[in-house]
Amino acid sequence: MNERNFRIILGAILLIALYFEWRLVVYGYMAILLFEAITNWRIPLLVSHLRGIPGDAGPTCAASPSALFTINFEAERALRLAVVGFLMISYVLFNEELWFFPWFIGFALFGAGLSGMCPMVMGFRWLGFR
């Protein structure tokens, strides 16, 4: 499994949980993403490792300030932390005011998986994350 397929699954699960108003599924979703971000034991890497396929570091951006410095933190981990942070703010703290933002995150993850390009990961890599 690669990160692209996993983003499709992440987006679909979030959209289904939001549509059916399964709050515990969304909380579990955030817990899994937070665990993956903290430990770097990501499901796509574990599945690829079990299948014997080497992991992919991903593309780098050519014209970025990361040529001058690099941050020893993966962009995929930063994406997961950002998703959890945005979901905590919009779904847990300000549910009534920011009701549309979890939907936006779900559609963005689903679209990033379908297109194969995640603007947030590209931005993190541009900033110097590996």
What order do the helices and strands follow? HHHHHH
Q: What does the average pLDDT come to? A: 88
Q: Tally the helices.
A: 6
Global shape? globular
Number of strands: 0
Major sheet, described briefly?
A: none
Structural class: mainly alpha
Helix content: 55-70%
Query: Residue ranges: pLDDT <50 for 5 or more in a row?
Result: none
The radius of gyration is 15 Å
The share of residues in extended strands comes to under 5%
3D architecture notes:
By secondary structure, the chain is mostly helical. The chain is built from six helices and no strands. The model has no long low-confidence stretch (mean pLDDT 88).
